């Protein structure tokens, strides 16, 4: 049987393997622009398809109801009741007792977002139009009721036709968008060709990184001779110790998604915590309790005492379960859920004492930070080789040529981006421009260290916007107390 390779023509690639740039054009920026263009078009198509589907589904609910009202008006209501009375009773019913049934994603408490609210809006619109038409026609009072009834019937008939056309047009547009989507194969279309029925057991969750560092034996300190120095800088540990402390802080502050959700369970929510642990085994792992305490410290430092106490509560909950033996959590929750007042009082008292101790430490840390001197901005990276400097040497040339693989990109957009980079570079202080041209992080930090924090932050935003130092790709981070707090790290 011959193989069909036509499907490979449908692949929509955003890789940089076939992209060649001009010497005057930054290749990484062009790659990012091409990737962004592909992903933006793909997401826009998905959003449009979802919107059209939702609109068709909503109109399919309203259409038969509008059609039934139009049919009743055209044939005449049962009995001697005029069409205007029937129409008014429908409006009154929808106003007094509207249903909260609504399309998915809408707010049922908002009348205009429900099916009844949409129908009521249409009926009011048709009723007002009918009254205006009869008034402008100058109909006599004895014929006014009949003329309004006919106008109501014609108005509803017109909306039935228009709504049917809207549904048909949306269906055609949806079919076109789906066909266009099928022309491009993405990762969402990939699926397993073969599979067996064997499902391997879930592996035991790995301990958090901080657990390994807490268990690691401390290095013996060598005997050294210390010399007292006048005006020695305060709080500057050795390079190795500072690096290890920073790594420990990172590990403690970074909660896993399960631990973060676990930390937000209300105080004394023992049943909720027990169910959560049963469904998420990765909560009860070595290091989880320490990570929660680290999150509590950061929350208290950020003036979030309620969340800090929740983190302390959940951390001690795990500690108690660990201390009570093999089935310690089961024993602990059995007592708490059963309402053992004595056990609950002991636990909650421990929570209060631990939180008070943590709050006192945070307050002391904040006071020491205020005495630490002037705050400055410094940039750091795990691997200095990861930092990319895209320093322009001049404005874009008059003749700008894009390389192979970038023919679909707008050359004027590329020119504007390069011109913006050059314009922003020209606005930087001269000493910072000189430092950037060396492409050395140490030289850039020397200049940033002499600036005020607000000025340095504003300049860093400009550098990132122009792509001169793209922080999102280089791993650069702000090591000031404010920067570490914004990044979710405890104070240094």
What topology does this entry show?
Elements lengths: L26 H49 L7 H14 L18 H23 L3 H42 L26 H7 L23 H15 L3 H7 L6 H10 L8 H14 L3 H19 L4 H11 L2 H30 L8 E2 L30 H17 L2 H9 L2 H9 L3 H14 L4 H4 L2 E2 L2 H6 L6
Antiparallel strand pairs: 1-2
Helix pairs in contact: 1-4, 2-3, 3-4, 6-9, 9-10, 9-12, 10-11, 10-12, 13-16, 14-15
Brief digest:
The chain has 18 helices and 2 strands. It is an all-alpha fold.
Plain-language structure description:
By secondary structure, this protein is mostly helical. It has 3 domains: 41-186, no CATH class; 239-370, Cdc37, Hsp90 binding domain (Methane Monooxygenase Hydroxylase, Chain G, domain 1), CATH 1.20.58.610; 379-486, no CATH class. The chain has helices at 27-75, 83-96, 115-137, 141-182, 209-215, 239-253, 257-263, 270-279, 288-301, 305-323, 328-338, 341-370, 411-427, 430-438, 441-449, 453-466, 471-474, 481-486, and strands at 379-380, 477-478. The longest helix has 49 residues, at 27-75. It is flat. Mean pLDDT is 76; it is low at 218-252 and 473-483. Belongs to the CDC37 family. It is found in: Cytoplasm. Its main location: cytoplasm. Residues 196-376 form the Cdc37 Hsp90 binding domain.
Rg over CA atoms: 34 Å
Low-confidence regions:
218-252, 473-483
Structural class of the helix and strand makeup? mainly alpha
The main sheet orders its strands as: 1-2
Elements, N to C (H/E): HHHHHHHHHHHHEHHHHHEH
Task: List the main descriptive attributes of the protein structure presented here.
18 helices, single chain, 492 residues
